[in-house]
Design goal:
Blueprint: H1 18-37, E1 48-53, H2 59-70, E2 74-79, H3 91-101, E3 104-109, H4 115-125, E4 130-135, H5 140-154, E5 162-167, H6 178-186, E6 193-197, H7 206-219, E7 222-226, H8 229-233, E8 238-242, H9 265-268, H10 277-280, E9 288-289, H11 303-306, H12 313-331
Parallel strand pairs: 1-2, 1-3, 3-4, 5-6, 5-8, 6-7, 8-9
Helix pairs in contact: 1-12, 2-12, 3-4, 5-6, 5-12, 6-7
This protein binds phosphoric acid mono(formamide)ester (CP).
């Protein structure tokens, strides 16, 4: 059990040891039980977290706002486009000032090539913990909630559970690569057999696959990358079919933005990458269907799957609350960084 978290940044789970992640999961479960029992936890009484969003959000914003309120503190929602960042104020100046006003800074900034750099620079200069609400590279809040949900469904020991992260067709907007990237790095640390499937042109960066494979070697799982969708679904215990943008051939800086809707011929050619009941039937009898949400219904997935007996998307979304509370409860609470 690790107990040294005060002031620690949560920008990527790559900076958190396995022992620290285990403690985070323990605390998440404890807070979930407290919430179910109506037990009051005011451990962050009178504390302020700034929630700065440069993109839209339903789950992340509201789990953080509800979460800090339930812990006795409060959140300031900041629309990033209305701040002086829009006029070029630096991440350093923003972080130093907000550090003097409150107890934590959280930020969502997904623009390719900018988001992680902005949040990391804030973390470098902040004197309070900085929490990544999703950037162009990482969505650690989603990955940790996914892991918690898997442990609830399959038990704490996830070794040799086959989880398939599968690209899916979507028209709603070009989704960042941060969700599959965070998942493919994290799940092998729990000894899972990870299958990453996508059409050619939707590759994740080479360093991600190399690090995921190194994690698998260290913790006793495996990582397979394929463009064969059937291979991914076959005998899977968990499938996560979800769209992500083709950052490889289109690094304009716009493609990964949450607000951009782009349907071109290259994308349209991959319409068949949709999660259907027939594909779910290839998996284990009790295969679980997961999705970070929002889902592009009828493009990424058939309604009969997302609303069907294999779907655990609402349990997954609920765990965003409990894990967000755990991260705030562990990292906030002081006025300075450890
Ligand atoms: N999964 C997720 O991050 O949802 P929001 O974009 O609604 O926050």
């Amino acid at each position: 059990m690790q107990s040294q978290f005060r002031g620690k940044h949560f920008v990527t789970l790559r900076d958190w040891s396995k022992e620290q992640i285990d403690t985070l999961l323990d605390v998440s479960l404890q807070l979930k039980r407290d919430f179910a029992l109506g037990t009051i936890n005011n451990s962050l009484q009178n504390q302020t977290i700034f929630l700065m969003f440069f993109e839209q959000s339903t789950r992340t914003r509201n789990s953080m706002e509800a979460g800090i309120t339930q812990l006795g503190g409060h959140a300031h929602f900041i629309d990033g486009s209305t701040t002086q960042v829009a006029h070029g104020e630096s991440p350093k100046d923003t972080a130093v000032i907000l550090s003097r006003f409150g107890h934590a800074i959280a930020c969502r900034y997904c623009n390719w090539g900018y988001g992680n750099a902005f949040i990391s620079e804030m973390a470098q200069h902040a004197t309070v913990p900085v929490i990544n609400l999703q950037c162009d590279l990482y969505h650690p809040l989603q990955a940790i909630a996914d892991l918690m949900t898997m442990q609830e469904k399959f038990g704490q020991n996830l070794k040799r559970i086959k989880v398939s992260i599968i690209w899916a067709y979507a028209e709603s907007h070009k989704k960042p690569i941060s969700v599959p990237l965070s998942q493919v790095l994290l799940f092998p640390r729990y000894g899972m057999d990870v299958c990453l499937a996508h059409p050619k042109g939707w590759e994740l960066p080479d360093w991600v696959i190399a690090e995921a494979k190194a994690n698998a070697e260290r913790y006793g799982g495996s990582v397979t990358v394929t463009d064969n969708e059937e291979e991914a679904y076959r005998d899977a215990h968990i499938v996560i079919p979800k769209n992500w943008g083709n950052w490889v051939n289109d690094q304009t800086g716009l493609q990964a933005s949450g607000a951009v809707k782009v349907v071109d011929e290259k994308l349209m050619a991959q319409r068949s990458w949709k999660c259907t009941e027939e594909k779910i039937a290839l998996g284990d009898r009790d295969v679980c269907y997961m999705h970070a949400l929002p889902a592009d219904r009828n493009n990424e997935v058939d309604n009969s799957v997302i609303d069907g007996p294999h779907s655990i998307v609402y349990d997954e979304a609920e765990n965003r609350l409990h894990t967000s509370k755990a991260i705030m409860a562990l990292t906030m609470g002081g006025r300075g960084r450890a």
